[in-house]
Amino acid sequence: xxxxxxxxxxxxxxxxxxxxxxxxxxxxxxxxxxxxxxxxxxxxxxxxxxxxxxxxxxxxxxxxxxxxxxxxxxxxxxxxxxxxxxxxxxxxxxxxxxxxxxxxxxxxxxxxxxxxxxxxxxxxxxxxxxxxxxxxxxxxxxxxxxxxxxxxxxxxxxxxxxxxxxxxxxxxxxxxxxxxxxxxxxxxxxxxxxxxxxxxxxxxxxxxxxxxxxxxxxx
Length: 219
Known about the structure:
The chain is 74% helix and 4% strand. It is mainly alpha-helical.
């Protein structure tokens, strides 16, 4: 067994352990962190398969953006996982069998990829010069030549979705109170309280005493 195969088994073992902990961790934050670890291990496996572009995209997009968003959402929301875990161990045997089958299929496909990777790389001959073909370069050429219009359409759709999400978030709601921070900064102490002169609603204490003494004399 060479070094590459040994690294594949190490990364795969850590990946399976992290995936198992994602569904068994009681703390949702810990589950998200284990999912981040699983993504890192999958990226390393793709790196061993010489799929550098996919590996970097997995780290940048999923670990750097999506999982950070998930982590913040889970930390801000007080998620009650007790109700979600009801009946977990009841369906665990079937889920374990399906997971083992998927793991075996992935291992068979990837080991075939390792055998193909041991073959010599394709060489492009241009005149007398030879150059090794890079999958990232070829993918970039396909994206920006043959698939340029679909790429621009997808970018425009994502831009519209981002602007729509910002517009929906910033719209004024009638059922929510809004306080302007600039008004709070400009406010002064004299503006916070106003002293008003109001007429008395009850008679003075001396008048009440005189009225009481007059009533007693009459009696």
